[in-house]
Amino acid sequence: xxxxxxxxxxxxxxxxxxxxxxxxxxxxxxxxxxxxxxxxxxxxxxxxxxxxxxxxxxxxxxxxxxxxxxxxxxxxxxxxxxxxxxxxxxxxxxxxxxxxxxxxxxxxxxxxxxxxxxxxxxxxxxxxxxxxxxxxxxxxxxxxxxxxxxxxxxxxxxxxxxxxxxxxxxxxxxxxxxxxxxxxxxxxxxxxxxxxxxxxxxxxxxxxxxxxxxxxxxxxxxxxxxxxxxxxxxxxxxxxxxxxxxxxxxxxxxxxxxxxxxxxxxxxxxxxxxxxxxxxxxxxxxxxxxxxxxxxxxxxxxxxxxxxxxxxxxxxxxxxxxxxxxxxxxxxxxxxxxxxxxxxxxxxxxxxxxxxxxxxxxxxxxxxxxxxxxxxxxxxxxxx
Length: 384
Known about the structure:
Layout: H1 5-8, H2 14-21, E1 29-30, H3 42-53, H4 66-79, E2 88-91, H5 94-105, E3 111-116, H6 121-128, E4 132-137, E5 139-141, E6 144-146, H7 149-155, E7 160-166, H8 178-191, E8 194-198, E9 225-230, E10 243-246, H9 252-262, H10 268-279, H11 281-304, E11 309-311, E12 319-324, H12 330-341, E13 343-344, E14 346-347, E15 358-362, H13 368-381
Parallel strand pairs: 1-13, 3-4, 3-7, 7-8, 8-9
Antiparallel strand pairs: 2-10, 5-6, 9-10, 11-12, 12-15, 14-15
Helix pairs in contact: 2-12, 3-10, 4-10, 5-6, 5-9, 11-13
């Protein structure tokens, strides 16, 4: 039996394609993946070690350990409106959280509107399920990425099953304003559209307050809203694969079944590590964000100083998304930077058609000097 056309037509990872071009090179300065080069903190790792030493190697509840669901609810409530544990589902990674949300809400023939440029996994998930994916592009205005709110409202109709939006955004750093969130929520209430909000970068936020604007600040518990989160970015736990969903309680039974059929549950020792991270979040996360801001503020002025480079300072996330005049084929340019100059960046085309001609640079580095050296390699590539 032939493979379903929707899966056959999925493009491979353009980021991995660039990374593979650098295999075997020992002097590579790699900034292509969306993770810090800091390891997970020792206190989080030790919690997992202690759990394993206790023999916690068995299945847990589909929806997660009760104590972890309680802790996530408290953590979320401290940042937003009150959230109860019966609205929390623990998942084996943020990407699994998003896939489970999509499985719960969309199927073959359903219309899903996706704001892009965006992490390629997001539009791929509804496409795998046979949904009709309609990209909606941000645009650049005075060097910064902007949303045409009226056009997006017009694009979301009664036919739209899901509006999928990632903010703070990977790769651009663009973030929804509170007014934009309110307008989108009100509109989707009228059209009966579900909002799936990927807010995994909400704490990687350089504006006012401890987190970026969230739909959880304004939504009612029974709104058609599902918010996806992850321990990966804010707790330096990318390889642990631990995430969660905040959703209406009426979806919980369905989501529990989907977790059972996808992964059964998140490993207990990984959940113990997440608990340890949440217990010290008030101290650890702001310190991490401070280091990320240093990386941003080191890289951005250096990029801005290069002739022909266009880049806006991102208010959130861990990426500089920039373009170089005359370099419109981002995949070819990224491969050339790898092979000829040992500089590893992600090609903008990986994030949808709206990202073509751009490059993504992850500035989450313990050593700002690595960013300085990277810009020098880019300068040499541009022969400046």
